[in-house]
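Researcher: Re-running this chain for the archive, since the previous output was lost when a drive failed. Same request as before.
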Amino acid sequence: MKNSRHVYLVAICGMGMGSFAGLLKEQGYQVTGSDKNVYPPMSTQLEEMGIKLLQGYNADNLSVRPDLVIVGNTVKKDNPEARAAIDGGIPYMSFPQALGELYLKDRKSLVVAGTHGKTTTSSMVAWMLEVAKKDPGFLIGGILMNFNASYKHGKGEFFVVEGDEYDTAFFDKVPKFLHYRPSSAIITNVEFDHGDIYHNIDEIKTEFRKLIALIPEGGKLVACSDYPHLRELLPGARCQVITYGYEGTPEWTVKGIHTQGETAIFTVYHNNEAYGAFELNVPGRHNILNALAAIALLHSQGIEREPMREALRTFSSVKRRQEVRAVIDDVIVIDDFAHHPTKVRETVSAIRFRYPERRIWAVFEPRTNTSRRAFFQKEYTTSFNDADQVVIAEVFNQGMIDNEDRFSPERLVGDLNSMGRSAFYIPKADEIVSHITTNVRSGDIILIMSNGGFDAIHEKIIESLNKVLA
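Model: Regenerated structure tokens:
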């Protein structure tokens, strides 16, 4: 493995895979790769690093034989490049396997896991360590604005990694986070998700139990006690458990949340004693909770309070997490990755918290393997409570899901309308752009939520608004 110089990544534009590609490039490997859908922001980051990207999968792409092929978890066993590697005897691994082997076994691996909040929380942890001059390494499924990168090798003892419960690869059907060798970990929450690979919440809890069991006796598990499914798992830990949250009597909590402009100010309490006041420019109670998790973890690792305070004050979030893409005649276009109904609800609520007097358009594309299915048909009816105008797009690649299993945007819109909400089912991105452009007014917020490219809707709506309003 140490002698491998040319690494080829199949499905390179996924956020985790793209981050790992950057990490390999930084360490001197020749890195190339391919993807079915090449789109920003990861494609832009990879191209800026000089990594050659190939559109589509073709066995001929491996005709110049690489030393190692990394296979992404979206790749199926009949993928022509994966088959070419396996049948041709080219060494291959999943990226979680390679990350564990190459970067984590000799570092203090801080794993951030949970159904929601992983990316933002791990980004906060990484930035706190950076401000504390610990020179951390990290690999996170989003581009951290403070670093303008989603990865860093670092020379310090800590390596921060976002731990996903999704499976690793078609040849390695275990959650990614089981490869990450945690010395300590945060678990933000445990809810049902990834309905394409998990049948029920019990199967998900089983995998989180395995993660908890990996944390050594001398490690720390920081867990949000607000979530009952997570609370059930905590007695199985062999390490020290540190709780945080808003409800009950957690070890770490916050009080006195208020705002000054767009800044949230809150006081952190540790064991019922005031630990200190903190500022955060990323809105939402869920993001304050993410910050609390990061504080609790790094306090347990010996990091001082003041660098953590300064890091949160200067934290610039992550691309596609409440990212302001444009302001045109006081119309603000915001991009967010939200897809699970809880995350959609928290994101819309956070935008309402940040802009209490403005009219909010919430535009949602059902795109993930779970949101495209009917698992949360009912739950989405409460996800848009803080929006004024709701637009639901068609299910992405809907032909790949049987009718009886598919999420119904039409039904959701009907339910929202019956509840007195202004909601529209508008299938295509171009149609959505036309509808919003026709009906938008100065001061509106346009919040677009999708975990993919959404047919370049962000660029299209910005271009259209510039023509109409600028």
